[in-house]
Automatic annotation (TrEMBL):
It catalyses: UDP-N-acetyl-alpha-D-muramate + NADP(+) = UDP-N-acetyl-3-O-(1-carboxyvinyl)-alpha-D-glucosamine + NADPH + H(+). Its EC number is 1.3.1.98. GO terms for cellular component: cytosol. Pfam families: FAD_binding_4, MurB_C. Cell wall formation. Its cofactor is FAD. Keywords: Cell cycle, Cell division, Cell shape, Cell wall biogenesis/degradation, Cytoplasm, FAD, Flavoprotein, NADP, Oxidoreductase, Peptidoglycan synthesis. This is UDP-N-acetylenolpyruvoylglucosamine reductase. The active site is at R165, S214, E284. Belongs to the MurB family. The gene is murB.
Length: 292
């Protein structure tokens, strides 16, 4: 199979994840562009396990690593353009923060909240990522999907079952791009809105520490951070993983954490919240790979 991208074998994933942890990928592919990625996937052996990684946020790769092939879109699948006066085409590898600024610069409103999501369009589509009261799928009109055979399909919003931090579609399909439907607004107002949102985020979240973003989903009518803090867990650590003093729904890597440390801390938090409040906290972070 002749491709234009880069194929790495037994590649440590810690340097690709925002938590700075994770064992090796059996195969890691960094595509040249969307067309190259489609060709690569079409040439994979039938049944090859396939995983996707953008900026590596909202992802815990276990210390034993990942068997199969990991597609890394960081700095790739980055095409973005104005499709018409109120629609923007965005490939899966574009960071959400770039989308927010791009739309604001064009005088389009509705995507400002994306500035607070530390991932790519692909990851945001997969989990209906949200921030500051906004959710990704509220502005998605249609998407472009690829299956394990390399077949590409266009699908409308209504073909997916979308809920809070949850998106259900056809099994074994992955997002290549999206068309966003926005509204005409005021460019300067949108830029000021983004600035205010980022100032709020920086004041309340440990944005300068190795984290994955929010670890837990907010339970109905409450906040995960409030429950964790009420359990007295701010600053609680297991190994090199610690509950952030700044925001209790963030787990920081103090520099020497393993995936096992982080996962043990996640489970300890869940146990404490369940014991003290009778609430089962569900993880927002996606855990993949094998334990060491």
């Amino acid at each position: 199979m002749v491709t234009k991208g880069t194929l790495l074998n037994n590649e440590p994933l810690a340097k690709y994840t925002s938590w700075r942890v994770g064992g090796p990928a059996q195969h890691l592919y960094i595509p040249e562009n969307k067309a190259d990625l489609i060709e690569f996937i079409a040439g994979l052996p039938a049944g090859e396990p396939l995983y996707w990684m953008g900026l590596g946020s909202n992802l815990l790769v276990r210390d034993g690593g990942i068997r199969g092939t990991v597609i890394n879109t960081r700095g790739r699948l980055k095409e973005m353009y104005l499709a018409d006066s109120e629609r923007v085409y965005v490939e899966a590898g574009v960071p959400c923060a770039h989308i927010a600024r791009f739309c604001a610069d064009l005088g389009l409103t509705g995507a400002e909240f994306l500035a607070g999501i530390p991932g790519t369009m692909g990851g945001a589509l997969k989990m209906n990522a949200g921030a500051f009261g906004g959710e990704t799928w509220s502005i998605v009109e249609k998407v472009e999907m690829i299956n394990p055979r390399g077949d590409v399909t266009q699908r409308d919003h209504h073909e997916f079952e979308v809920a809070y931090r949850s998106v259900k579609g056809l099994a074994d399909e992955w997002f290549l791009s999206a068309q966003l439907k926005l509204s005409k607004g005021n460019s300067e107002a949108s830029q000021q809105h983004i600035k205010a949102l980022l100032e709020k985020r920086n004041a309340s979240q440990p944005t300068n520490k190795p984290t994955c973003g929010s670890v837990f989903k907010n339970p109905p009518g409450d906040y995960a951070a409030r429950l964790i803090e009420a359990c007295g867990l701010k600053g609680f650590a297991i190994g090199g993983a610690v509950v952030s003093e700044k925001h209790a729904n963030f787990i920081e890597n103090r520099g020497d954490a393993s995936s096992e440390d982080i996962e043990a801390l996640i489970e300890h938090i869940q146990t404490q919240v369940q014991t003290q409040f009778g609430i089962s906290l569900q993880t927002e972070v996606c855990r993949v790979g094998e334990k060491a």
